Amino acid sequence: MRKKVVLACVVCGSRNYTTMKNGKDVAERLEINKFCKTCNAHTAHRETK
Ligand SMILES: [Zn+2]
């Protein structure tokens, strides 16, 4: 089973990315370094609901 998650910049809160994750990964929160247009830099992006 797959679940859609939204990734938000932890610095400014912008929701920049969406991704899918597998059922066995749902329990843990994703945190990925990605480019944020608002911050104009690479920042950590965390899963949000
Ligand atoms: Zn940002």
Automatic annotation (TrEMBL):
The keyword Transmembrane helix does not apply. PANTHER family: 50S RIBOSOMAL PROTEIN L33, CHLOROPLASTIC (PTHR43168), LARGE RIBOSOMAL SUBUNIT PROTEIN BL33B (PTHR43168:SF5). It comes from Litchfieldia luteola. The keyword Ribonucleoprotein applies. This is Large ribosomal subunit protein bL33. SUPFAM superfamilies: Zn-binding ribosomal proteins. Keywords: Ribonucleoprotein, Ribosomal protein. GO terms for cellular component: ribosome. Pfam families: Ribosomal_L33 (PF00471). It comes from the Bacteria. Belongs to the bacterial ribosomal protein bL33 family.
